[in-house]
Design goal:
By secondary structure, this protein is α/β, with parallel strands linked by helices. It is built from 17 helices and 13 strands.
Length: about 425
């Protein structure tokens, strides 16, 4: 499946060979940070220098003063910006390509969609980076970092992702076993702080105690130390809880059944590493997340602290914002002012509370309205949020795009109401 993609990845590797210094622009989430660390490691092993900038999105022209630029987890949907770059360019992205790129110099566009692979579910940006890195040299030990990105982007272990994971298992860098694929720690703490899965126990200690009593689990015990029968009981109880609070049934397979251990990484629990790196990105502590992926032991504890703080802030926001959700004809939406986070709220609420309609979350901040939209596979059969966001945003003079189940936009704050009406109109017409 990856053979076609490897042809373009080889072209990218050849461009890397031609340059001693590389300018990298990458997304600030778990997928973008892990993708950057994969390429950075491959560059260091070749004795090459680099400069990385973490972005929340490629929404304006970038300043470049080097011979090679790499866009990671971005670029495919911004052909106008990429076409202005006066350098050789590598795009290592998994978002659906939008429009024609007219490169000023050499271009290697490594994107699963261009090779017949679904970049929404079957290969993340970190997976693309891993494929490029293995054309640069033997970097097969970085397969665990590719898992960080696919887990962070809520992808499936199928298609290209499955090939990478199988390779990691065969080389001994990844271990797969039966179990709960969730964060490690004390049972009570993890069930309270978890957002993947989100169990709605934040601020509900009595409810959690009753939950643990019913499934006969000691809340003070470490999750990784539970007996097989205890894991089975806990898994069943979690599944029931998710369904009771309104969760999309498709999320269950993500955390029940298979557990992954990353042998070469600082944090062996794959979910744990992915969530910590994501928290670092969301907290603007990009260097901490990046350093953890670069296996720098000195950043482990800081990463853990950032994760816990971030989870509490996110859970507080979820409790607050779920009451502000409004109903459209075919969508639900929230309009927030100067909120601390947008896409994480959209992700959790759409997956676990309001899973029957697309959810649009708007955050007006610093003179810009940032939109995150989310749905699920069932809805995506009829509604492609990437197309919806792009069309609605363009109508009001903004920019939008992304994936079929997770997309975003940036628009003028004065156009928010018009944008929401247009999104609702477009979704209504699809009769999902």
């Amino acid at each position: 499946m990856l053979d076609v993609l490897k042809v373009e990845a080889k072209k990218a590797a050849n461009l890397i060979d031609e340059h001693d210094f590389v300018r990298i622009f990458t997304h600030y989430d778990a997928d973008g940070i892990s993708a950057a660390s994969i390429i950075a490691t491959s560059l260091l092993r070749k004795g090459k220098q680099f400069h990385i900038t973490f972005l929340k999105g490629l929404i304006e022209d970038v300043e470049v003063d080097s011979g090679l630029v790499i866009f990671q987890d971005m670029g495919s949907g911004q052909p106008d910006i990429v076409s202005k770059v006066e350098s050789d360019v590598i795009i290592a992205d998994h978002h659906y390509p939008a429009g024609k790129i007219s490169p000023r110099k050499e271009l290697a566009h490594v994107n699963p969609h261009l090779a017949g692979i679904d970049g929404t579910f079957e290969l993340s940006a970190s997976g693309v980076a891993y494929i490029i890195a293995n054309q640069v040299g033997d970097n097969s030990d970085l397969c665990g970092l590719a898992m960080v990105g696919l887990l962070g982007d809520k992808q499936k272990i199928t298609g290209g992702n499955a090939e990478i994971v199988r390779e990691g298992i065969s080389t001994g860098f990844i271990k797969e076993e039966k179990g709960l694929n969730i964060f490690s720690g004390r049972v009570r703490d993890i069930l309270t702080l978890s957002t993947e899965p989100f169990l709605d126990f934040h601020g509900k200690e009595d409810e959690l105690s009753e939950f643990l009593e019913k499934c006969k689990i000691d809340g003070d015990k470490e999750i990784d130390e539970l007996e097989k029968e205890e894991v089975h009981r806990l898994a069943n109880a979690i599944v029931l809880r998710v369904l009771e609070i309104g969760g999309y049934e498709g999320v269950i397979e993500e955390f029940v059944g298979r557990r992954y251990t990353l042998k070469k990484e600082l944090l062996k629990n794959a979910v744990m590493l992915s969530e910590i790196v994501n928290s670092c990105g969301r907290a603007s502590a990009y260097s901490t997340g990046f350093s953890i992926c670069m296996r720098d032991e000195t950043y482990r504890e800081k990463g853990m602290e950032l994760w816990k703080k971030y989870q509490i802030e996110l859970l507080d926001e979820i409790v607050k914002r779920r009451e502000d959700v409004k109903e459209g004809e075919a969508i639900r939406y929230i309009i927030m002012d100067d909120a601390r986070m947008t896409s994480p709220i959209a992700t959790v609420l759409s997956r676990y509370i309001f899973s029957d309609k697309p959810l649009i979350v708007v955050n007006v901040k610093n003179g810009m309205a940032k939109i995150s939209s989310r749905s699920n596979l069932r809805i995506a059969e009829k509604v492609n949020l990437s197309d919806i966001m792009r069309e609605a945003a363009e109508k009001v003079g903004g920019r939008g795009g992304g994936h079929s189940v997770a997309a975003g936009a940036n628009i003028n704050p004065e156009k928010v109401e018009e944008f929401i009406r247009e999104v609702d109109r477009l979704v209504s017409g699809l009769k999902y």
